[in-house]
Write a structure and sequence with these properties.
DNA polymerase, domain 1; about 300 residues; Rossmann fold; alpha/beta; seven-stranded mixed β-sheet; 2 domains; 7 strands
C-alpha cells in the first residue's frame, strides 16, 4: 500500500494552529492522514487529536499506513460528517484548541476511488460520487430523477458552468445511454463548443454533482458554525478551500466573526501555495488557507 496524496499547505496550516503539546485538536478531513500525523507529532501524551472522515476507505488506509500511531490512546479516529464534530468532540473534552478543515478531495479518492466515479478521467466507473457509501442517492440517481430545469440549476449554481442549459438538455435527451463516467464525459464533449475544450469540459459538472450528492456546502456551513462554537478562547479555526463556492462561504463566515469582535483574522487575506509547491503538486494551485482566532466576550 503506497501513499499518494500530498498534503496541501502542510507547513502553513500546521503553523497556523499554533499547536500546544497538551491541547485538543480536530482534523475534520482525515484523508490520507498527512495533516493529522503532523498535528499528532506535535502533541504530548496528554494532548489529544480527533480526526474525522466520512469515507471509510480513507480511515482504513490511515489505520494501515500509520499502524502504530493510530493505536495511540491520544489519536481518536471516527467515521462521521464533520458537521457533527461538536458531538464527537464533547466525548473527549468540552472545548478544542484548534480545528483544521482541508476541503479538497484527496488524490486517493480521485485515483483509487473504489468504483465511485469521482474523477471524470475514470471512464468505466459508475456515476456514484458518494463519499459515504451509506448515503442513499448517487449522481446517477440525480440525473435520472431530476427534471432538466433542476439539473440546469445544479450545474449553474454548484459548477458555475456557462453551458449548464445545453448540458442538462442533452443529458435528459440521452438519459438511457448514460451509465458510466465515460458516457457522461463523451456527451458533454459533444455539447461544448470546440473553443472551450482546452480543458476537460466535464470538470465543473462533476464538481456540481459531487457537491449535491454529498451536501457539501450545507455541511461546510454547519461545520464552520459548530467548529467555532467549541473553540477555546484563543483557539484557531483553519480552513483550506479549493473552489470559489467553498471559499466564499469560509470568507464570509470569517469576516462576520471578525466584524462582530468574536474572532480575529490571522492573515489579512489568505495564504496560497508557493510556486515550488504548485510545481510539485499541481492540484494545490487553487488552494487558499484562511485562519480565524476566537475571542470570547466581545
Amino acid at each position: 500500500m503506497h501513499k499518494i496524496h500530498i498534503p496541501v499547505l502542510l507547513r502553513e496550516s500546521i503553523d497556523s494552529l499554533a499547536i500546544k503539546p497538551n491541547g485538543f485538536y480536530i482534523d475534520c478531513t482525515l484523508g490520507d492522514g498527512g495533516h493529522s500525523i503532523e498535528i499528532l507529532r506535535k502533541l504530548s501524551p496528554e494532548g489529544v487529536l480527533l480526526s474525522i472522515d466520512r469515507d471509510q476507505n480513507a480511515i482504513d488506509f490511515v489505520k494501515s499506513f500509520y499502524n502504530e500511531e493510530s493505536k495511540q490512546d491520544n489519536w481518536k479516529i471516527v467515521k462521521a460528517n464533520f458537521k457533527e464534530l461538536d458531538y464527537y468532540a464533547k466525548e473527549i473534552r468540552n472545548s478544542a484548541d484548534g480545528v483544521l478543515m482541508d476541503l479538497g478531495l484527496s488524490s486517493r479518492q480521485l485515483e483509487e476511488s473504489h468504483n465511485r466515479g469521482f474523477s471524470y478521467l475514470e471512464e468505466k466507473e459508475p456515476l456514484d460520487m458518494r463519499m459515504d457509501m451509506e448515503l442513499g442517492v448517487t449522481a446517477k440517481d440525480l440525473i435520472n430523477v431530476l427534471p432538466e430545469k433542476e439539473l440546469y440549476q445544479i450545474f449553474k449554481i454548484y459548477g458555475e458552468e456557462k453551458y449548464s442549459y445545453q448540458i442538462a438538455k442533452a443529458i435528459k435527451r440521452n438519459i438511457s445511454d448514460i451509465n458510466t463516467v465515460g458516457d457522461l464525459t463523451r456527451l458533454i464533449y459533444k455539447v461544448m463548443p470546440a473553443v472551450n475544450l482546452h480543458k476537460n469540459p466535464s470538470r465543473r459538472v462533476f464538481q456540481a454533482l459531487r457537491i449535491v450528492v454529498n451536501d457539501e456546502l450545507n455541511s461546510l456551513k454547519e461545520g464552520l458554525d459548530n467548529s467555532f462554537k467549541i473553540l477555546n478562547n484563543g483557539g484557531r479555526l483553519s480552513v483550506i478551500s479549493f473552489h470559489s463556492l467553498e471559499d466564499r462561504i469560509v470568507k464570509q463566515f470569517f469576516l462576520e466573526k471578525s466584524r462582530s469582535g468574536e474572532g480575529e483574522l490571522l492573515f489579512k487575506n489568505h495564504i496560497a501555495p508557493t510556486d515550488e509547491e504548485e510545481k510539485q503538486n499541481p492540484r494545490s494551485a487553487s488552494a487558499k488557507l484562511r485562519t480565524l482566532t476566537k475571542h470570547d466576550n466581545p
